[in-house]
Amino acid sequence: MLEYLVRRLAAIVPTLFFVSVLIFGLQQLLPGDPAIILAGEDRDPSVVEHLRKRMHLDEPLPMRYLYWIGGVLQGDLGESVRIQKPVLELILQKLPVTIELAAIAIVIALSIGITAGIVSAVAKDSVWDYAANVVALWGLSTPNFWLGILMILLFSVTLGWLPASGYVSPSEDLRGNLAAMIMPAFVLGNAIAAVLMRHTRSAMLQVLNSDYVRTARAKGLDERVVVLRHALRNALVPIVTLGALEFGTLLSGAVLTEQVFSIPGFGKLIVDAVFNRDYAVVQGVVLFTATAYIVLNLLADLAYFVVNPRLRK
């Protein structure tokens, strides 16, 4: 396992290098000049020239990449053109909000998706199986923004149980924080739960037909023990992979959901940066998201050894 971990860590370095080159290169293809945007409406040529030199825009493209990646390695992701703040500071401000929203959403998704997938596989071709598949199809087909609006109309406008939008820090009011986050988290978790349910059902059906499961049943073990201890544990490998990737997607920012519920997370940050052509923020957020995907993929691979002991050999 240690040798495998070392090899994976060694593979991360060239992967991150390629990702950084791709992010920086594609960023240069976007229209607009940050120096002109920062200079304002007057656009004094001397000011524009000064800004271009300060941001190294007058340098060749390879040199500009070296300046940027050198700052990244030192923890400097640049400065926001629009609000004149370091990009790293902006990311650290939005990160707790996004992590909380993603964590609640993935817990909801795992609770619903895995449970429904197990029930659907065990009760194959029954009413429960068809009902779970219908719910999963509904979850995959329902747009997040539409479901969010319906939930606001029901739970906020009609019933008055939950706030319609906004964000409250858990350090200020934990109950208010959970009340504000539960609806957007359910909207995000609903779609992921549908995907997890389909994958769990497929994996469980394959495992339940295995010889060792039939042997466990022949020994007289309780059906709950056979399903949860023997079948589910061996079916978790693809589910762990999917869960890690979906969690990375949530960390990248749920743009529409955050806009509907006015959640100040990564989604709102990246949308504002794109509309304002704040390229440093776009680069920083995308680089952070790509790094999070790589790290989560590594953690998922390591979780395989915990879930399935056969892989340790």
Could you explain how this protein is built, in words?
It is a single chain. Helix content is 77%, strand content 0%. The protein has two domains: 15-73, no CATH class; 94-312, MetI-like fold, CATH 1.10.3720. It contains 13 helices and no strands. The model has no long low-confidence stretch (mean pLDDT 81). The longest helix has 36 residues, at 87-122. The relative contact order is 0.13. With 313 residues, the chain is mainly α.
Comma- or semicolon-separated keywords:
313 residues, mainly alpha, MetI-like fold, 2 domains
Task: Detail the topology: elements first, then pairings.
Elements: H1 2-28, H2 34-39, H3 45-54, H4 61-73, H5 87-122, H6 127-141, H7 144-158, H8 174-208, H9 211-218, H10 223-251, H11 255-261, H12 266-275, H13 279-307
Helix pairs in contact: 1-13, 5-6, 5-8, 5-10, 5-13, 6-8, 7-8, 7-11, 8-10, 9-10, 10-13, 11-12, 12-13
What structural class do the secondary elements suggest?
mainly alpha
Shape: globular
In CATH terms, what is the architecture of the largest domain?
Orthogonal Bundle
Count the helices. How many? 13
- The CATH class of the largest domain is Mainly Alpha
What is the residue-averaged pLDDT?
81
The main pleated sheet reads as: none
Estimate what percentage of residues fall within beta strands.
Answer: under 5%
End-to-end separation in angstroms reads 8 Å
Unreliable spans: none
**What string, H for helix and E for strand, traces the elements in order?**
HHHHHHHHHHHHH
The number of E-state strands comes to 0
